[in-house]
Amino acid sequence: MALQWVTVPAFRAVTDLGVSNVRRFATTAFLCRRAPPLGPMPNEDIDVENLESLTKYRSYTRYLRKAEEARNKPVWWKTYRYHVEKADPEHGAKLVDIGLPCCQIREVRERKKKIQENKKNAELEKAYRLRSFKIQVDQVQKAWGKTSAPYHIKRLAEHYGVFKDLFPMAYFLPQVTLHIRYSQDKTSQVYCGKQLTPTETASAPQISFDAEEGSLWTLLLTCPDEHLQDTEAEYVHWLVGNVPGGAVHAGEELCYYLPPFPAKGTGFHRYIFVLFKQECLIDFKEDIRQSPCHSLVDRTFKTVDFYRKHQDQMTPAGLALFQCQWDESVTNTFHNTLICPLSLQT
User: Fold this and answer.
1) Is residue 260 classed as helix, strand or coil in its secondary structure?
2) Which residues lie across from 262 on neighbouring strands?
3) 277 has which bridge partners?
4) pLDDT tens column, 65-122
5) What pLDDT score was predicted for residue 327?
6) Peptide bond into 292 cis (omega under 30)
7) Please, what's the b/e burial string for 91-114 (b: 16 or more CB within 10 A of its CB; e: otherwise)?
């Protein structure tokens, strides 16, 4: 008798569950039947079991023409590019080149001529075959800086989103290579995207670059990732104007050097050096901060606004960047050096 009372409720529960599932399936099938078909799927007409029967384009021109026709043909589905362009209206827009005119034809010709001469040199070929040939790294570095470096640095800057954040809708070719080192140790040398610690970058670095005698430059160090209140703003860490030749120490320091202070838990921040070539001596009275400037309100900065204000007298010519995340020295910087805007409000 007890077994009968247990079996009956269990059977009823299973029956109710089955009926519920059947009803749900029937409702879904009914709704699917009522929905109008959107249209044929992409490449639905292709017989995948007989690919040899497909029409061959026979040339790239014919394929390109057919591809253009297929792209312009209205379809019901949406491509990944459509979703990207809808989320980012500036995606694929033509950017403006605000850099110096590219004039590296002479260097490229000299490099090709040197390569041809090396190929005809029997001694070099013998040393290469015997594996006794030694490469002069300094010469390779110098040749790279004159030929391929600007394009490689530009590509890295695009990868890290430098132009998008500092110069919206614009870009430039970094034709002047910056040599930046925070100490005599080679590990503290700044490369594009290298990771350094706030402790290693506590003091101003040593910077050198090839410059003509009598030329004037402006050096900027900014961070677009660490502003505490405005995600669109930056903090200027260093600003030196009217630099004669390549002597940064002899320039007019508009904003005292401030070490990186990435907040804990925010990951790596980008610290970007931008070198501008000046056309003439510039009056930077409006850009001077008190020395030393410990107020984050005064250090709030936008590179694009600074460039637009002086774009008739300067042109971006060099670029370098490194990444930095929190370490124990940042706590000391927050407590003993910085005057935060949040503390000013209280």
Assistant:
1) coil
2) none
3) 217, 315
4) 988 888 888 888 777 777 766 766 666 678 899 999 886 666 777 878 888 898 899 9
5) 94
6) yes
7) eeeeeeebbbeeeeeeeeeeeeee
pLDDT digits (tens, 9 = 90+) for 159-211: 999 999 999 999 999 999 999 999 877 777 898 889 999 999 999 999 999 99
Burial of residue 263 (number of CB atoms within 10 Å: 0-12, 13-18, 19+): middle
- Written as six digits, the tokens of 71 are 């792209």
Residue type, 235: Y
Q: How far apart are CA 132 and CA 234, in angstroms?
A: 51
DSSP assignment string, 142-158: HHHHHTTHHHHHHHHHH
SS3 call for 212: coil
| Residue 277 to residue 92: CA distance in whole angstroms | 29
| Secondary element (H or E) of residue 217 | strand 216-223
